[in-house]
Amino acid sequence: MDCYDDPVLWDRAFADETTAEADFITAMHDIHCPALTRQVLEIGCGGGRQVLEMTRRGFAVTAIDLNAKCVSETQRRIRRSGRTARVLQADMSQFELPQKFALAHCLVNTFRHLLSEHAARQHLECVARALLPGGVYLLGFHLLPPDALELDCERWTVLRRGERITTTVRVLEFSRRKRIERVRFSLCQTRGENSRRIAADYRLRIYKADQFRRLLSSVPLLELLQVCDFCYEPTDNFPLTDELGDAVFVLRRRTTD
Ligand SMILES: C[S@@+](CC[C@H](N)C(=O)[O-])C[C@H]1O[C@@H](n2cnc3c(N)ncnc32)[C@H](O)[C@@H]1O
Protein backbone atom coordinates (compact mmCIF):
# COMPACT_ATOMS: atom_id res chain seq x y z
CA MET A 1 0.00 0.00 0.00
CA ASP A 2 1.18 3.50 -0.81
CA CYS A 3 -0.29 6.08 1.61
CA TYR A 4 -0.38 8.51 -1.30
CA ASP A 5 -2.95 6.21 -2.92
CA ASP A 6 -5.35 7.40 -0.20
CA PRO A 7 -5.09 11.16 -0.72
CA VAL A 8 -8.27 11.88 1.25
CA LEU A 9 -6.90 10.36 4.43
CA TRP A 10 -3.43 11.84 3.89
CA ASP A 11 -4.95 15.28 3.40
CA ARG A 12 -6.94 15.03 6.61
CA ALA A 13 -3.86 13.99 8.57
CA PHE A 14 -2.17 17.27 7.58
CA ALA A 15 -5.30 19.45 7.64
CA ASP A 16 -4.22 21.37 10.77
CA GLU A 17 -1.22 22.78 8.87
CA THR A 18 -3.14 24.16 5.89
CA THR A 19 -3.96 27.66 7.17
CA ALA A 20 -0.47 28.38 8.56
CA GLU A 21 1.14 27.19 5.32
CA ALA A 22 -1.26 29.21 3.14
CA ASP A 23 -0.75 32.35 5.28
CA PHE A 24 3.00 31.91 4.80
CA ILE A 25 2.74 31.37 1.03
CA THR A 26 0.52 34.46 0.72
CA ALA A 27 2.89 36.57 2.86
CA MET A 28 5.93 35.47 0.83
CA HIS A 29 4.15 36.48 -2.37
CA ASP A 30 3.26 39.87 -0.87
CA ILE A 31 6.77 40.47 0.49
CA HIS A 32 8.96 39.18 -2.34
CA CYS A 33 7.02 39.44 -5.58
CA PRO A 34 3.87 41.59 -5.14
CA ALA A 35 4.30 43.13 -8.60
CA LEU A 36 4.29 39.76 -10.33
CA THR A 37 1.17 37.76 -11.20
CA ARG A 38 -0.83 35.67 -8.71
CA GLN A 39 0.05 32.49 -10.62
CA VAL A 40 1.38 29.83 -8.23
CA LEU A 41 2.66 26.33 -8.78
CA GLU A 42 2.37 23.61 -6.15
CA ILE A 43 4.71 20.65 -6.44
CA GLY A 44 3.49 17.34 -4.98
CA CYS A 45 -0.06 18.48 -4.21
CA GLY A 46 -1.27 15.23 -2.59
CA GLY A 47 -5.03 15.37 -1.95
CA GLY A 48 -5.18 19.05 -2.88
CA ARG A 49 -5.73 20.73 0.49
CA GLN A 50 -3.37 23.60 -0.41
CA VAL A 51 -4.69 23.86 -4.00
CA LEU A 52 -8.17 24.42 -2.60
CA GLU A 53 -7.01 26.94 -0.02
CA MET A 54 -4.91 28.99 -2.46
CA THR A 55 -7.68 29.13 -5.09
CA ARG A 56 -10.04 30.25 -2.31
CA ARG A 57 -7.59 33.12 -1.68
CA GLY A 58 -7.76 34.21 -5.32
CA PHE A 59 -4.53 32.69 -6.64
CA ALA A 60 -4.42 31.02 -10.06
CA VAL A 61 -3.08 27.59 -9.14
CA THR A 62 -1.32 24.94 -11.17
CA ALA A 63 -0.33 21.77 -9.32
CA ILE A 64 1.59 18.63 -10.20
CA ASP A 65 1.86 15.25 -8.54
CA LEU A 66 3.33 11.95 -9.70
CA ASN A 67 0.51 9.90 -8.23
CA ALA A 68 -2.57 9.56 -10.51
CA LYS A 69 -4.93 9.15 -7.52
CA CYS A 70 -3.70 12.40 -5.98
CA VAL A 71 -4.22 14.18 -9.30
CA SER A 72 -7.77 12.89 -9.81
CA GLU A 73 -8.78 13.54 -6.18
CA THR A 74 -7.50 17.13 -6.37
CA GLN A 75 -9.30 17.64 -9.70
CA ARG A 76 -12.51 16.23 -8.17
CA ARG A 77 -12.35 18.53 -5.15
CA ILE A 78 -11.63 21.58 -7.31
CA ARG A 79 -14.60 20.76 -9.58
CA ARG A 80 -16.82 20.35 -6.52
CA SER A 81 -15.68 23.72 -5.11
CA GLY A 82 -16.80 25.48 -8.31
CA ARG A 83 -13.33 27.02 -8.72
CA THR A 84 -10.65 26.17 -11.27
CA ALA A 85 -7.04 24.98 -11.12
CA ARG A 86 -4.78 23.05 -13.47
CA VAL A 87 -3.76 19.76 -11.89
CA LEU A 88 -1.39 17.57 -13.85
CA GLN A 89 0.40 14.28 -13.41
CA ALA A 90 4.12 14.99 -13.69
CA ASP A 91 7.44 14.08 -12.13
CA MET A 92 8.94 16.93 -10.13
CA SER A 93 12.42 16.10 -11.41
CA GLN A 94 11.50 16.45 -15.08
CA PHE A 95 8.62 18.73 -15.90
CA GLU A 96 8.06 21.64 -18.20
CA LEU A 97 5.00 23.88 -18.17
CA PRO A 98 3.87 26.38 -20.80
CA GLN A 99 3.33 29.30 -18.40
CA LYS A 100 5.59 31.00 -15.85
CA PHE A 101 4.80 31.48 -12.18
CA ALA A 102 5.39 34.20 -9.60
CA LEU A 103 5.75 31.62 -6.86
CA ALA A 104 6.21 27.88 -6.53
CA HIS A 105 6.04 25.85 -3.31
CA CYS A 106 6.90 22.38 -2.17
CA LEU A 107 6.61 21.96 1.58
CA VAL A 108 6.77 19.12 4.10
CA ASN A 109 9.64 16.95 2.81
CA THR A 110 8.26 16.09 -0.64
CA PHE A 111 11.60 17.19 -2.13
CA ARG A 112 13.39 14.46 -0.15
CA HIS A 113 11.65 11.82 -2.28
CA LEU A 114 14.26 12.64 -4.92
CA LEU A 115 16.97 10.19 -3.97
CA SER A 116 19.96 11.36 -6.03
CA GLU A 117 21.86 14.61 -6.35
CA HIS A 118 21.16 14.51 -10.06
CA ALA A 119 17.36 14.29 -9.60
CA ALA A 120 17.42 17.03 -6.94
CA ARG A 121 19.43 19.34 -9.23
CA GLN A 122 17.16 18.61 -12.19
CA HIS A 123 14.19 19.47 -9.97
CA LEU A 124 15.64 22.84 -8.96
CA GLU A 125 16.44 23.60 -12.60
CA CYS A 126 12.87 22.73 -13.69
CA VAL A 127 11.47 25.02 -10.98
CA ALA A 128 13.85 27.86 -11.92
CA ARG A 129 12.72 27.59 -15.55
CA ALA A 130 9.06 27.61 -14.47
CA LEU A 131 9.45 30.85 -12.47
CA LEU A 132 9.25 34.40 -13.73
CA PRO A 133 12.48 36.36 -13.19
CA GLY A 134 12.24 37.60 -9.58
CA GLY A 135 9.75 34.84 -8.71
CA VAL A 136 10.28 32.78 -5.55
CA TYR A 137 10.37 29.12 -4.64
CA LEU A 138 9.42 28.00 -1.10
CA LEU A 139 11.06 24.68 -0.41
CA GLY A 140 10.43 23.06 2.98
CA PHE A 141 12.07 19.95 4.38
CA HIS A 142 13.88 18.57 7.42
CA LEU A 143 17.63 19.00 7.55
CA LEU A 144 19.60 16.60 9.69
CA PRO A 145 20.54 18.41 12.91
CA PRO A 146 23.70 17.20 14.74
CA ASP A 147 21.70 15.91 17.73
CA ALA A 148 19.18 13.96 15.60
CA LEU A 149 18.38 10.46 16.78
CA GLU A 150 19.02 8.22 13.82
CA LEU A 151 16.07 5.94 14.57
CA ASP A 152 13.48 8.46 15.58
CA CYS A 153 9.68 8.34 15.94
CA GLU A 154 7.16 11.17 15.74
CA ARG A 155 3.38 11.00 16.25
CA TRP A 156 0.49 13.46 16.06
CA THR A 157 -3.31 13.28 16.10
CA VAL A 158 -5.91 15.34 14.27
CA LEU A 159 -9.49 15.42 15.65
CA ARG A 160 -12.21 16.52 13.29
CA ARG A 161 -15.97 15.99 13.10
CA GLY A 162 -16.00 12.88 15.26
CA GLU A 163 -12.99 11.37 13.53
CA ARG A 164 -9.49 10.83 14.91
CA ILE A 165 -6.46 10.41 12.63
CA THR A 166 -3.14 9.53 14.20
CA THR A 167 -0.02 9.72 12.05
CA THR A 168 3.16 7.95 13.11
CA VAL A 169 6.44 8.52 11.33
CA ARG A 170 9.17 6.08 12.30
CA VAL A 171 12.70 5.91 10.90
CA LEU A 172 13.48 2.25 10.17
CA GLU A 173 16.88 2.53 8.51
CA PHE A 174 19.39 5.28 8.28
CA SER A 175 22.62 5.56 6.29
CA ARG A 176 24.75 8.70 6.56
CA ARG A 177 27.04 7.28 3.89
CA LYS A 178 24.30 6.74 1.30
CA ARG A 179 22.38 9.78 2.59
CA ILE A 180 19.16 7.76 2.63
CA GLU A 181 16.72 6.94 5.40
CA ARG A 182 13.79 4.52 5.21
CA VAL A 183 10.75 5.90 6.98
CA ARG A 184 7.44 4.20 7.79
CA PHE A 185 4.32 6.37 7.66
CA SER A 186 1.30 4.88 9.45
CA LEU A 187 -2.10 6.54 9.42
CA CYS A 188 -4.75 5.25 11.79
CA GLN A 189 -8.29 6.53 11.26
CA THR A 190 -10.86 5.98 14.03
CA ARG A 191 -14.55 6.84 13.97
CA GLY A 192 -16.61 5.44 16.85
CA GLU A 193 -15.95 1.71 17.01
CA ASN A 194 -14.41 1.51 13.56
CA SER A 195 -10.80 1.96 12.86
CA ARG A 196 -8.51 1.30 9.92
CA ARG A 197 -4.80 1.67 9.44
CA ILE A 198 -2.66 2.16 6.36
CA ALA A 199 1.12 2.19 6.31
CA ALA A 200 3.88 2.55 3.75
CA ASP A 201 7.65 2.82 3.73
CA TYR A 202 9.39 5.62 1.84
CA ARG A 203 13.06 6.22 1.14
CA LEU A 204 14.04 9.84 1.70
CA ARG A 205 17.30 11.64 0.92
CA ILE A 206 19.16 13.13 3.89
CA TYR A 207 20.48 16.70 3.82
CA LYS A 208 22.83 18.51 6.15
CA ALA A 209 23.09 22.28 5.79
CA ASP A 210 26.31 22.10 3.75
CA GLN A 211 24.95 19.46 1.43
CA PHE A 212 21.97 21.62 0.58
CA ARG A 213 24.17 24.71 0.18
CA ARG A 214 26.37 22.79 -2.28
CA LEU A 215 23.38 21.56 -4.26
CA LEU A 216 21.98 25.06 -4.46
CA SER A 217 25.28 26.52 -5.66
CA SER A 218 25.13 24.11 -8.62
CA VAL A 219 21.93 25.83 -9.84
CA PRO A 220 23.02 29.39 -10.67
CA LEU A 221 19.51 30.51 -11.67
CA LEU A 222 18.40 30.32 -8.01
CA GLU A 223 19.67 32.36 -5.07
CA LEU A 224 18.90 31.96 -1.37
CA LEU A 225 16.91 34.91 -0.03
CA GLN A 226 15.71 33.81 3.39
CA VAL A 227 15.55 30.77 5.67
CA CYS A 228 12.45 30.16 7.79
CA ASP A 229 11.25 27.06 9.62
CA PHE A 230 8.02 25.10 10.08
CA CYS A 231 6.67 27.88 12.36
CA TYR A 232 6.10 29.75 9.07
CA GLU A 233 6.98 33.20 10.46
CA PRO A 234 7.44 35.45 7.40
CA THR A 235 9.91 37.75 9.18
CA ASP A 236 12.26 34.97 10.39
CA ASN A 237 15.62 34.54 8.74
CA PHE A 238 17.86 31.89 10.27
CA PRO A 239 21.46 31.16 9.38
CA LEU A 240 21.78 28.06 7.22
CA THR A 241 23.67 25.87 9.69
CA ASP A 242 23.26 22.39 11.12
CA GLU A 243 21.47 23.92 14.13
CA LEU A 244 18.43 24.19 11.88
CA GLY A 245 16.08 21.17 11.92
CA ASP A 246 12.99 21.92 9.85
CA ALA A 247 13.78 24.47 7.18
CA VAL A 248 11.80 26.44 4.65
CA PHE A 249 14.11 27.96 2.05
CA VAL A 250 12.99 31.02 0.14
CA LEU A 251 14.81 30.90 -3.18
CA ARG A 252 14.62 33.55 -5.85
CA ARG A 253 14.84 33.09 -9.61
CA ARG A 254 17.59 35.50 -10.63
CA THR A 255 16.54 38.23 -13.00
CA THR A 256 19.50 37.59 -15.34
CA ASP A 257 20.39 34.15 -16.77
C1 LIG B 1 4.53 14.33 1.65
S1 LIG B 1 3.26 14.23 0.43
C2 LIG B 1 2.73 15.92 0.45
C3 LIG B 1 1.36 16.14 -0.10
C4 LIG B 1 0.83 17.57 0.05
N1 LIG B 1 1.75 18.56 -0.47
C5 LIG B 1 0.54 17.87 1.49
O1 LIG B 1 1.33 18.59 2.13
O2 LIG B 1 -0.48 17.42 1.99
C6 LIG B 1 4.24 14.07 -1.00
C7 LIG B 1 3.52 14.13 -2.34
O3 LIG B 1 4.51 14.21 -3.36
C8 LIG B 1 4.18 13.32 -4.40
N2 LIG B 1 5.44 12.93 -5.07
C9 LIG B 1 6.38 12.07 -4.65
N3 LIG B 1 7.38 11.99 -5.54
C10 LIG B 1 7.07 12.83 -6.55
C11 LIG B 1 7.70 13.19 -7.78
N4 LIG B 1 8.87 12.66 -8.14
N5 LIG B 1 7.08 14.09 -8.57
C12 LIG B 1 5.89 14.64 -8.22
N6 LIG B 1 5.23 14.32 -7.09
C13 LIG B 1 5.82 13.44 -6.25
C14 LIG B 1 3.44 12.16 -3.75
O4 LIG B 1 2.62 11.47 -4.66
C15 LIG B 1 2.67 12.90 -2.64
O5 LIG B 1 1.41 13.29 -3.06
Radius of gyration (Å):
18 Å
For the record, the CATH class of the largest domain is Alpha Beta
Strand content of the residues, in percent? 35-45%
CATH topology of the largest domain: Rossmann fold
Number of strands: 11
Low-pLDDT windows of residues: none
Strand order of the largest sheet: 3-2-1-4-5-11-10
Identify the CATH architecture of the largest domain: 3-Layer(aba) Sandwich
> Ions, cofactors, ligands: which are bound?
S-adenosylmethionine
Termini, distance in Å? Answer: 43 Å
CATH superfamily of the largest domain: Vaccinia Virus protein VP39
Description:
The chain has 257 residues and is α/β, with parallel strands linked by helices. The chain has 2 domains: 7-144 and 207-253, Rossmann fold (3-Layer(aba) Sandwich), CATH 3.40.50; 153-205, N-terminal domain of TfIIb, CATH 2.20.25. Helices cover 26% and strands 36% of the residues. It has helices spanning 7-13, 18-32, 49-56, 68-81, 117-130, 209-217; strands at residues 39-43, 60-65, 86-89, 101-106, 131-142, 153-160, 163-175, 180-191, 194-205, 222-228, 246-253. The longest helix has 15 residues, at 18-32. The chain is globular and about 60 Å long. Bound molecules: S-adenosylmethionine (SAM). S-adenosylmethionine binds next to strand 2.
